[in-house]
Amino acid sequence: MRSAFMAEYGAGLLESHGTVMKEYVAVPDALLEQTDALAPYLAASFEYVSSLKPKATKKGRK
């Protein structure tokens, strides 16, 4: 689904502080106001994130 989104809207991978974030896609500014077009992608993203197991926590130092 990510590659389809990138191809359809000309989006690219997110770059943050000079680092390409391979798991994130930058949404083009022109698309931000088109909530109907974004809704299925946001729903799929939320479903994916909800399916992930919580990250293990580190025990605090005493």
* Quantity of strands, as a count: 2
Order of helices and strands: HEEH
Task: Report the C-alpha radius of gyration, rounded.
Answer: 15 Å
Domains, number: 1
Helical amount: 40-55%
First-residue to last-residue Cα separation: 45 Å
How is the largest sheet built, in terms of strand order?
1-2
Chain-wise SSE layout:
Blueprint: H1 2-9, E1 12-16, E2 19-26, H2 35-51
Which characteristics define this entry?
single chain; 62 residues; alpha+beta; two-stranded antiparallel sheet; 2 strands; 40% helix
What does the model show?
The protein has about 60 residues and is an alpha+beta fold. About 40% of the residues lie in helices and about 20% in strands. Strands 1-2 form a two-stranded antiparallel sheet. The N and C termini lie far apart (about 45 Å). The mean pLDDT is about 90.
Write a concise synopsis of the structure shown.
40% of the residues lie in helices and 21% in strands. The chain is of the alpha+beta class.
